[in-house]
Design brief:
Length: about 210
């Protein structure tokens, strides 16, 4: 038992470090770039006002507001990602996913829902979710929902967590499944993740 507990702690520590690295990249690629753009636009507006080109300055201000709105969304998304820290096991993952999906819907206006396939079986099979896999699956869900917000132009998204013995999983019925499906672009394309003994597999399903 001590050996298993040590392995579990190590797996969660590695997964946590990977998650922090991912969030750092996301903040750099998203928030930092938007803020840099804001600063450039402020300089441009200042120059336009100085030269009396008020109509162009007003247009730049509108673009500046839009960039500010995007920065606000990026910051709130990064904060939500930092708070999404599931407890060990399937139940902890399910609860963290439920909270994140609800927050995503409120934050973006997308009709977002979360479901667990065959809840009773998922609870009884919670030991099948290897240590650290809940963090990997959480990261997959966050990344998929971020892509929905940025690219899909979706009105509705559904996140489904499936236990190894629940129906509707990937072919073969092995491992846990996490499916993120939306009604946006490209049409009818699902982002799918499945846990295996040696890690997490990601894929796309039509």
């Amino acid at each position: 038992n001590r050996r298993l507990e040590a392995l579990s702690r190590d797996a969660r520590r590695v997964a946590t470090l990977e998650e922090r690295e991912r969030l750092a990249r996301e903040i750099h690629d998203g928030v930092a770039q938007v803020i840099a753009t804001l600063l450039v636009r402020v300089d441009t507006i200042e120059g336009l006002v100085t030269r009396g080109r008020l109509v162009e300055a007003a247009a730049e201000l509108r673009d500046l507001r839009a960039s500010g709105d995007r920065a606000n969304v990026e910051v709130r998304e990064a904060i939500a990602g930092l708070r999404a820290n599931p407890s060990p096991g399937a139940d902890g993952l399910a609860e963290a996913l439920r909270r994140y999906v609800e927050e995503f819907g409120a934050r973006t206006g997308v009709d977002a829902s979360f479901h667990v396939e065959d809840t009773s079986r998922a609870r009884s099979a919670s030991s099948d979710l290897a240590p650290g896999h809940e963090l990997h699956l959480m990261r997959v869900a966050i990344e998929a929902l971020t892509n929905v917000r940025k690219h899909a132009q979706a009105r509705r998204v559904e996140v489904t967590l499936g236990s190894p013995d629940a129906t509707g999983g990937l072919p073969g019925g092995r491992g846990w499944t996490l499916v993120v499906a939306d009604d946006g672009l490209p049409a009818d394309l699902d982002v799918t993740a499945r846990t295996e003994d040696d890690g997490t597999i990601m894929g796309l399903r039509h």
